[in-house]
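INFO batch 0412 | record 1 of 1 | parsing
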Amino acid sequence: MTPTAWDFRNKLTVILNTAEHSGKPYVDVESSNLHTEMGGDPNSNHRMPIFHEVMTRMMRPGDSVLKETGNGHGATMMIRYILKNKLRVVETVATSAPQTVF
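INFO prediction complete | emitting tokens
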């Protein structure tokens, strides 16, 4: 079964949460590796535009695109997600008063 945008978002969320709980300050995610890891055919890029859209939408201030090659179906994208940033956003939303996170 071909992974959907929903599947991809869930997998990316697991990767980010696992890295954060491991104490990493950031994690680099490459779309083609994630596509293959989710069972996609490494020789087929037909789902890559959806993966790129999900990866981009999950970016927060401080995250950056490290690599973007090609365009369209054959493109590969690598994004560095800053995990401290995400923790700060989650905790600010989850509490009634803003708190500083160290």
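INFO post-check: The first strand starts at residue 26 and ends at 30.
INFO record closed
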